[in-house]
């Protein structure tokens, strides 16, 4: 019986670790979900391997332990690769940004979401799947008089960018071939410095290769922007997903480390970060934190404090 349990367990753990390891060999969009959970699944493999050792002391179980540790460690190192430089004593927050996917069918919580946005103290707010806020816009406009989305610049109410400062420039465009108008770019003046924001919402990575095309378009859009830049929104993938890594590396963006988890909400702080706030020097991410109340959404929001190296 012990031998049977050991054999079955070894096969299952081996299959899990093999699925994670495929990222080092080829891009398989069907496994994109697994790649985002590399650290979590590798730790699960480690725990299962330790149980196998208790069942039967065998060299193969020790090999599985070693592979699990390597995969988990490399996952953490990949997250740290894009870590923003630490803030200096002279740095101070230049602006606060809130990014939140509030979920399209979260209509019953529209009032609470509006109150959360108004009370956030953010200078810029990017809301994804913004339909629940459509009936709250008149109330929100008292705090955020400038906006793009939900009838201003876009026919629908999908991506919404709110600002306390007027827009110097603004544009709405489409990424890839799946969803329209999911890239909103604005520029605001912050103490004499033009700061650019790109609000994005990418397709799920296991929707064929649509996300690959979206990332290519986003990379071109980011590279065309000169000056301080923030990219924020729902990427539907962790930063260690191979295609997201390629994008961040190619564009010179930085991320917080560790990144606060945003999904699934039931996992709390043990989830993964599929929503991101990224910045390009001279902007410096001083902090990125999880908005504690998900207000009925299937994502947690993010609050970022951003400084600039003068």
Automatic annotation (TrEMBL):
Sequence intervals crossing the membrane: 28-52, 59-79
Query: What is a GO molecular function of this protein?
Result: exonuclease activity
Query: Is Phosphoprotein a UniProt keyword of this protein?
Result: no
Q: Is the keyword Hydrolase assigned to this protein?
A: yes
Which residue range or ranges hold the Endonuclease/exonuclease/phosphatase domain? Answer: 98-299
Pfam families tied to this protein = Exo_endo_phos
Entry keyword set: Endonuclease, Exonuclease, Hydrolase, Membrane, Nuclease, Transmembrane, Transmembrane helix
What InterPro entries does the entry give? Endo/exonu/phosph_ase_sf (IPR036691), Endo/exonuclease/phosphatase (IPR005135)
**Protein's name according to its UniProt entry:** Endonuclease/exonuclease/phosphatase (EEP) superfamily protein YafD
Organism name? Rhizobium metallidurans
Q: What is the lineage of its organism?
A: Bacteria, Pseudomonadati, Pseudomonadota, Alphaproteobacteria, Hyphomicrobiales
